[in-house]
């Protein structure tokens, strides 16, 4: 059995090695596995994404972040719960509940590990009033008359 000449945790970026695994226990050794490439991308935890938002409406928001090196996908969290997965560096959340506040964050992920969570963004949604349209009640005069705005 050969010992590794280089620890896979000390690989330089982009450097690749090929490994073969043999399980060993008190009964002996297993047959060797197939040769498999191992790269730093597989063994390095991505950094936390830097998150921001734009294009907020009364019920939607678009989250944006810079690409994270060694990340294959991103998890979108709403109030700490995973709600979506994307390989893009932006994500639009629609149909958010009006008159509510949500906390959004993003986690970068690869085959090896998940990054720490991004900074948490707190976004509040409220109904955007349209133009006021007066509706006049014609039933009374003076004090009985009222104007409603819808």
Write up what this structure looks like.
With 150 residues, the protein is an all-beta fold. The chain has 2 domains: 36 residues, no CATH class; 75 residues, Immunoglobulins (Immunoglobulin-like, Sandwich). 3% of the residues lie in helices and 39% in strands. The chain is built from 1 helix and 13 strands. The strands form 5 sheets. A 4-stranded antiparallel sheet has the order 8-7-10-11, with no helix packed on it. The chain has a 3-stranded antiparallel sheet with strand order 5-6-9, with no helix packed on it. A two-stranded antiparallel ribbon has the order 1-4. A hairpin with a 2-residue loop joins β7 and β8. The longest helix has 4 residues. 10% of the residues are buried.
Query: Unreliable segments (pLDDT under 50, ≥5 consecutive)?
Result: 129-150
CATH homologous superfamily annotation of the largest domain: Immunoglobulins
Oligomer type: single chain
Largest sheet: 4 strands, antiparallel
Query: Compute the gyration radius: what is it?
Result: 28 Å
- Beta percentage is 35-45%
Q: Which percent bin holds the helix content? A: under 10%
The strands making up the biggest β-sheet line up spatially as 8-7-10-11
CATH class of the largest domain: Mainly Beta
Indicate how many domains the architecture comprises.
Answer: 2
Q: Give the CATH architecture of the largest domain.
A: Sandwich
Shape: elongated
Order of helices and strands: EEEEHEEEEEEEEE
- Kindly report the average pLDDT value: 77
The secondary structure category is mainly beta
The tally of beta strands, per DSSP, is: 13
Terminal CA distance reads: 81 Å
What CATH calls the topology of the largest domain is Immunoglobulin-like
Number of helices: 1
